[in-house]
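yo, Transcriptional regulator is done. seq:
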Amino acid sequence: MNQLEEEQLSVWRAFMNSHASVIERIEKDLSEQRKIPLTTYDVLVALYQSPSKKLRMTDLANQVVLTRSGLTRVVERLEREGFVKRERTEEDRRGAFAVLTREGKKAFLATWPTYANGISNYFLSVLDEEERSIIKRGLSKVYRALQEER
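structure:
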């Protein structure tokens, strides 16, 4: 087993604890304002940002922080709620697209102000410009390294 120094572990814990705390607060705000939860928001924003407002399920799974089976359950729920519909692909009868509906777009757009306020209040307002820049560089470096492994 690799040995990590206390300073290294403290960086990891600070990242994990901060992330969990910010997400918890934003989820609480969304719930209190009767907005969609972040898991739903993440799926809807990925679809909204795609040029055709639809993505293959495998591509959608790569864009959200869910397992493939978890994504399938979320998309099934979103389909029942009218936020997403599924379409079979022409070239691969086993494949499917998740497609954003008008109701899904409305739910996403209605949620954004609460989410944006949470990002601003619980994360950005606590950090100065230099800290934000350092965090962005560091986390972007981690992300790129992992993307290259794919």
